[in-house]
Every structure is written in structure tokens, then in C-alpha cells.
Amino acid sequence: MTGADRFAEIVRQAQQQDSAQLLVLLNEFENVIGGAAKRFYVPPSERGDLLQEAYIAFLLAVQQYDPARGVPFPAYAKAKTHERVWQYIRVRGRHHARELADNPLTDGEGETGTLLGLLPDAQAEQPFCELEWRSLLTSLSEREALAVEKIVIDGMTMAELARMEGVSAGTVKTWKQRALIKMREEIKKTRG
Fold this sequence. Notes:
Blueprint: H1 3-15, H2 19-28, H3 30-38, H4 47-64, H5 73-102, E1 104-106, E2 112-114, H6 122-125, H7 130-138, H8 142-153, H9 158-165, H10 169-191
Antiparallel strand pairs: 1-2
């Protein structure tokens, strides 16, 4: 029996709730799970979370594996585990950036503000009113407005929007880029 056939049978049994076979897989692929988590730097306080994400990804890979697709289980498990860990790192980075922008900061004189509030550009402190935003969105095509609304305002990823609309991520990226260019031009016109 080859290695790939051996894993396919063990995975099939693990998918049928055989916990002994699941433990065999976890022991056999512990290096893949740990390697996926060690691949990225996170603060020590978050290492446990990252390792948990790797274990969750591996368990999902076991449940979702289909040998009929012709991919050996070791390659499938490694790809799915690394993919989930990378997604965790990306989401963590987005949340961390938002927290930095929104966290209150104190200057040397005891006054509090946010990172965005401390920008030297006076125009950056003047928020757009809702009417100005609506005006900007009406200058966009329907798809460009959708990209801005879902990605920028709602926080959806380009991949999620692409799946929702049934197009490629590259297409969504183009929509977003065109929308931002048009919006930038409109803002330049209004602010002189």
C-alpha cells in the first residue's frame, strides 16, 4: 500500500467519526500543523491562537478531503492549513491597523485624540458629510459603487465579494481601483 493510499483510508475512517484514526492523523501531521503556525511571527500572547487556527484548519481539511479529486491528502492538508493560517494573519493585520487608527492617544500635554485626529492635514480633520459621500458614490458605475460599499464601508474582502458576485478577485480589484481613482478625482475637484 502506498503512502497516499494509506492516508486516504485513514482519512475516510476519520471522516466517519473514528477518533482513533483522527489521532493517528494528528500525530502524523503534527509537523505540518506546527510548521504552518511557526511560519509567521505573532506576539507571544497570540501564538496559542495561531496554533489553534492551524489545528482547526487541519481538522477541516480532514472533513473536506475528497480522494476522488486526485490530490494526495498530505498535499491537500498542508495547503489548507497554510491557507487558513495566512487568512488569520491577514485578518489580524486588518483589525490591528483599525485598532491603531481608533485607539485614543495622549500627547505630552495630557490631551487625548486618535491617530487619525493627529494628522497634520487640516482637510483630513473635516469629515465628509453623508451628502458628499452619496455624491461621490453616484459618480461611480454600479459595480464600482458596490466594490466601495462592500469592501471599504462593510469591510468585506475582495475574495468574498468576488465569490458573492461570481467573478474573479482580479475583476473586483479592478472595480475597486477604478472607483478609488474616480473618487480621488472628485475630491480633488471639490477641494480645489
